[in-house]
Protein: Lipoprotein
Amino acid sequence: MKPLLASACALALLFSTSCCTTPQPPADHYEYLTISGLIDGSEKFTFSPAGVQWVHRHWSEPDDMVFDGSPWYNPRKTPARWSQYASLDLPHATITKRKGRDLVALEPTPDGFVLYFDDAPNGADTYSVTIAIPKKVGRK
Structure:
């Protein structure tokens, strides 16, 4: 009986201290950007504080592009939503998720990054990439 009572008291003490302190999730020092679209061939997107530049390389131009949840009808124009990412630490961006049957790659540049899509198999496929872009440390 005494071991059972001791165990019950220990559990009660454990729950009474843990239920009253709610742990806070760690601060997320990143903004996440998701880009998706139907890719058939090769595309190059260069991201910098000044904007987004698109270079079509091979086969068909991309279709059904979505930038941060909004349709991106004309990849030749910088999406309006880019302004919320332009002041982040772009050269330290990394891919956190990717979907598609072939290559999705990110290359840092001195002031931003280049995103490559390369769909070599015949026909098009839907690609999606989520990029983590760090917030600049020490900004006021």
